[in-house]
Amino acid sequence: MFELIDANIAKHITLSPQELDHFHSFLHVKKYKKKQFILQAGETSHFQGFITKGCIKNYILDEKGHEFIMYFALEDWWVGDIMSFYERKPGNLFIETIEDTELLTIDHQSNEQLLHDIPQFERFFRILIQRSAYTLQQRFFNTLSKPAEARYLEFVKKYPQVVQRVPQQLIASYIGVTPEFLSKVRAKLAKKSSKTEAGS
């Protein structure tokens, strides 16, 4: 049950078996159906979650109600509204499942106790926050500076599993184009690929 999350943590910090058992004692399993909200704008995030099964999207809505997808997340990813969780204030993010999803969660009070009991988790969660900030920075940089085709190719290269599991219209939303435009981009790339294979 805890193998995936233990491996995730081991990438950044080393814990004893006793410390891992103590960490496990703070975790709770939460299960969600497909297209169910984990969090909505205006709510305060009361927990951080680690995905053991499923797929989610994290997004905001513009003034016209259009989705702007911040990121997708699959198994072995942490998910949540970090600012809302730590500041204890309502957030502006929507977190919604794309597939039936299962999380291991830790609530705010337990998280504070964990940081007190095992100080190494200060480093672990700091790394998560830094990586999240870097990913979002790169996301906005790509959106503002690269054409749609380049954004799609980078997305496919970086997140091949997501491409296989997320509907095309959601990928189009993430890239910042219409589904019709993305279809044209994919058809163009497929044509290039077939020509390359024919010439080799």
Explain this structure to me?
The chain is an alpha+beta fold. The chain has two domains: 3-145, Sandwich (Jelly Rolls); 146-194. The protein is built from nine helices and eight strands. It has helices at 3-10, 17-24, 82-87, 108-117, 120-145, 148-158, 160-165, 168-175, 179-199; strands at residues 28-32, 37-39, 47-53, 56-61, 67-73, 78-79, 94-97, 101-107. Strands 1-8-3-6 form a four-stranded antiparallel β-sheet. It has a four-stranded antiparallel β-sheet with strand order 2-7-4-5. A hairpin with a 5-residue loop joins strand 4 (56-61) and strand 5. Helix 8 packs across helix 9 (179-199). The protein is globular, with a radius of gyration of 19 Å. 20% of the residues are buried. The model has no long low-confidence stretch (mean pLDDT 90).
> Which architecture of the largest domain per CATH?
Sandwich
The CATH first-level class of the largest domain comes to: Mainly Beta
Look at the structure and give the mean pLDDT.
90
Query: Shape from CA axes?
Result: globular
Strand order of the largest sheet: 1-8-3-6
Q: Helical residue percent? A: 40-55%
Poorly predicted regions? none
And the CATH topology of the largest domain?
Jelly Rolls
**Measured on Cα atoms, how large is the radius of gyration?**
19 Å
The secondary structure category is: alpha+beta
CATH H-level homologous superfamily name of the largest domain: Jelly Rolls
